[in-house]
Write a structure and sequence with these properties.
With about 350 residues, the chain is an alpha/beta fold. The protein is about 30% helix and about 25% strand. The chain has eleven helices and 17 strands. The protein has helices at about 40-50, 65-70, 90-105, 120-140, 180-190, 205-215, 215-225, 230-240, 250-255, 275-280, 340-350; strands spanning about 5-10, 55-60, 80-85, 110-115, 120, 140-145, 160, 170-175, 195-205, 260-265, 270, 290, 295-300, 305, 315, 320-325, 330-335. Strands 6-9-7-8-10 form a five-stranded mixed beta barrel. Strand 2, helix 2 and strand 3 form a beta-alpha-beta unit. The longest helix is centred in the middle third of the chain and has 17 residues, at about 120-140.
């Protein structure tokens, strides 16, 4: 393993579209969503640890999830689990981790990846990551992995690339965030667009140079701190309230002229909704995705069913294409077509008296 290669796993989200399984106290990335025996963050660690030693793997999450992360990733040194005092989108967390890793190794190459994505073709993924590390160690490139689209999906961002003779990687032309259906169809037909997986590879020098050029105020704020020492946390707590909320895509990648994409067919999904879980889960003869024992179904097809209490029996009769999730605190039954409304359900529950206790 190359000691200059590092990984940052971003694990700070709440995953409200996976309510009621995912809650603010125990969010999606810490659940075994697909019933594999490993949680999403554990699968992410398992995947990348084939290339990168555990001491070079960092997790950045919300402060309240530090202990939960340590419980689930015991091979990672505790000091590599970093808690943000506030959610400030992806520019802040990327700059924070780049500064921390630079303080340990100014020649580091870093892959940044979300904690809650599904990648079925691990061998292909690892090959693409190795290519990315090779490119960023030899060039001033900011690399993103682009997923070959399988349908005109309106829930993903798209990357337009410039076709060249070299098929392994291409220069990025534009980024488009979640287009409408007609535009997504035109992207598919053109053949020069990829899904934006939110997986990035860069050398620490390259990304810090980009931050200095495109987000100078944020750079100055993080430059005021010293890293991997006793004063780091106090300084971070001082600057985070005034740091701007901006995504790494908007803040850096859409502006920089040295962004390249590696096209990849990885069997990838961001598992952003219960419908995406249904699509990727094992199903029985009635096309029901059931990961719970003691469930009987009658005249029911196309459902995703999760019953947390394995000692509880459930009988489902006459439901087609529904989401049924039962936890200790809440029960959700809604059509799969309405999975984008779950965030609204959560907001409405919060407005109820004492509604917070269901979150």
């Amino acid at each position: 393993m190359n000691k200059n290669n590092y990984c940052v796993i971003m694990a700070g989200g709440i995953g409200s579209r996976f309510w009621p399984m995912s809650t603010q106290k125990f969010p999606k990335q810490f659940h075994d969503i697909l019933g594999t025996g490993r949680t999403m963050i554990q699968q992410t660690f398992d995947r990348i640890s084939q290339l990168i030693p555990a001491e070079n793997i960092y997790v950045i999450t919300n402060e309240e999830y530090i202990d939960l992360t340590q419980q689930q990733l015991q091979d990672i040194p505790f000091e590599n689990i970093v808690g943000e005092p506030a959610m400030k989108n992806t520019s802040a967390c990327n700059l924070y981790m780049a500064k921390k890793i630079e303080a340990s190794n100014p020649n580091a190459n870093i892959i940044v990846m979300p904690a809650d994505h599904l990648i079925l073709k691990e061998k292909a993924f690892l090959e693409k990551v190795e290519l990315g590390f090779q490119l960023t160690s030899e060039n001033d490139y900011l690399i993103t992995l682009g997923i070959t689209p399988t349908r005109p999906d309106t829930g993903y961002g798209y990357i337009q690339f410039i076709r060249e003779n070299n098929e392994d990687y291409s220069k990025v032309k534009t980024f488009t965030e979640k287009p409408d259906l007609d535009i997504a169809k035109s992207f598919m037909e053109s053949g020069d667009f990829l899904w934006n997986a939110g997986i990035f590879i860069w050398n620490v020098k390259s990304i810090l140079k980009a931050f200095k050029k495109y987000l100078p105020e944020m750079t100055n704020q993080f430059n005021s701190c010293e890293y991997n020492c006793s004063t780091e946390k106090e300084c971070i707590n001082l600057i985070y309230p005034i740091v701007n909320k901006v995504s790494i895509d908007n803040g850096i990648l859409e502006k920089a002229n040295n962004v390249y994409v590696i096209p990849a067919n990885l069997g990838w999904s961001d598992l952003g909704t219960w419908t995406s879980v249904y699509t990727n889960a094992d199903k029985n003869d009635d096309n029901n995705a059931i990961s719970s024992k003691n469930v009987l179904t009658y005249n029911s097809k196309g459902n995703v069913i999760r019953i947390k209490n394995q000692n509880k029996a459930a009988v489902i009769d006459g439901l087609k294409n529904y989401i049924i999730v039962d936890t200790e605190k809440a029960l959700l039954i809604c059509p799969r077509d309405n999975d984008q409304l779950i965030k609204d359900y959560v907001l409405d529950l919060k407005n109820l008296k004492k509604g917070e206790r269901f979150m």
